[in-house]
Amino acid sequence: MEKSGNHTDLRCDVAIIGGGIAGLWLLNRLVKAGYNAVLLEQTALGGDQTAASQGMIHGGIKYTLSGNITGASEAIADMPDHWRACLAGEGDVDLRGAAILSDHFYLWSSSSALSRMTTFLASKATRGRVNKVAKKDRPAIFQHSAFKGGLYQLVDMVLDVPTVVKALTDNCCAGRIFQIDWQQARWLRNSDRSAAINFEYDQQTRRLDARQFVLTGGQGNEAMLNELGITAPQMQRRPLHQVMIKHHYPHRFYGHCLGAETTPRLTISSHPCADGAQVWYLGGSLAEKGVNQSAEQLIGAARQELSTLMPWIDLGNAQWATLRVDRAEPRQRNFARPDKAFVSRADNCPNVMVAWPTKLTLTPNLADEAIALIQEQSLLQPSAEPIPELGFLGHPPLAPTPWHTVFGE
Q: Rounded distance, CA 111 to CA 113, Å?
């Protein structure tokens, strides 16, 4: 740290911008590797896209509904085991404080889709990854005599995302996480085209120079790239409109319904509320098609879909709401879905990298890719410098869940 009048220069090895699960995981990895790293978050940790996640840690089976092995399914086949090692305290980050909502996911079909289910299960893509559930072992929601379809168990799991965020924050990293107010901070470009951040707080000017900035701000990356004048990589948005149903039904359920498309017809995950109620969070094709519908139209479509697929379930006293989510991804040809996590050096800005995990499941993959790029720079080795004095920024809170915000627990 250097001071000159009212001007203070601060330095670190790596500064991560964005406190979603990708930024927090990367921070844990960098600190463990000995880097002098900090994270700057504008609003709340684990907000926006992280908070809107259904918490599924899957091995890609839902990307094989066509019966074929795809790039997406192969890229994440080992992710459940990777996350399980971390949850046991034996992985590259320590997630022992995180809660598992379910250690498996189900795949079910209506009676009309049974033939397609049979074809799907006969494909080599499912071997060792899907197990048929005997009638006596079905969850309570499928014990009803009206259910005539097929039910299978996947080697996937569901995490309580807020507890994952808290575990990553508490792992000796809390003192490295700061809240940035972009009304009082701005990006600078140096003569060598590298980036820095200038802070104007309490009538004092401070400047943060990082040997490497990593942008993990989800859709917020776009504005930062524009401000820095970086034209590549570019971002695309994949919007969703999801339904939340707060009910007092005793059933928790996590499953995909197989339909006629390659995307699951409906995905249901269950999330606990403080008052003991459960929220069913609906994704899949319903959420993708719902982008062009109003909240009222989408809720009507969700009611009809659940009535068709689970006619024995009574949600008459439930509370309904919707949530629009923009999934931020690296721009792809023909708006294709990225197969892997994405990390790239920014064009014409030597100390900036841009990252999108593309899926919650691939967060560890993003950290691997980012660290590999950082270590390619022979001059960027872990340093013994102290954490830069950024305490004037304060620390961000943990983000609430969407259902907490909407239903006001």
A: 5
- Position 330, amino acid: P
As beta bridge partners, residue 215 has 17, 354
Cβ atoms within 10 Å of 84's Cβ, excluding its own: 16
pLDDT surpasses 60 at 247: yes
- Chain position carrying tokens 């990298």: 353
pLDDT of residue 335: 82
Tell me, rounded to whole angstroms, the distance of Cα 95 from its chain centroid: 15
CATH domain 97-159+237-328 topology:
D-Amino Acid Oxidase; Chain A, domain 2 (3.30.9)
Tell me the C-alpha distance between 20 and 17, whole Å. Answer: 9
What are the residues facing 15 on neighbouring strands?
A: 38, 213
Looking at residue 49, the DSSP 8-state letter turns out to be T
CB 373 within 8 A of CB 353: yes
The pLDDT of residue 171: 87
Q: How far, CA to CA in Å, does 65 sit from each of 195, 230, 338? A: 44, 38, 17
- pTM comes to 0.91
Locate the domains of the chain by residue range: 2-49+165-236+332-407, 97-159+237-328
CATH class of 2-49+165-236+332-407: alpha beta
| CA gap 400, 19 in Å, rounded | 14
275 φ/ψ angles, rounded to the nearest 5 degrees: -90, 10
CA atoms within 13 A on the CB side of 50: 31
Q: Which residue has the higher pLDDT, 15 or 259?
A: 15
Predicted pLDDT of residue 121: 55
pLDDT band at 129 (very low <50, low <70, confident <90, very high): low
Q: Would you put residue 203 in left (φ > 0), alpha (ψ -120 to 50) or beta?
A: left
What is the pLDDT confidence band of residue 6, given thresholds at 50, 70 and 90?
low
Please say whether the beta carbons of 192 and 350 come within 8 A: yes
Torsion of CA 51, 57, 62, 63, to 10 degrees: 90
Interval 40-95: pLDDT, tens: 999 999 999 999 999 999 876 554 444 444 454 455 778 888 999 999 999 999 99
| Distance from C-alpha of 213 to C-alpha of 216, rounded to nearest angstrom | 10
Nearest CA to 13 out of 212, 195, 215 is that of 212
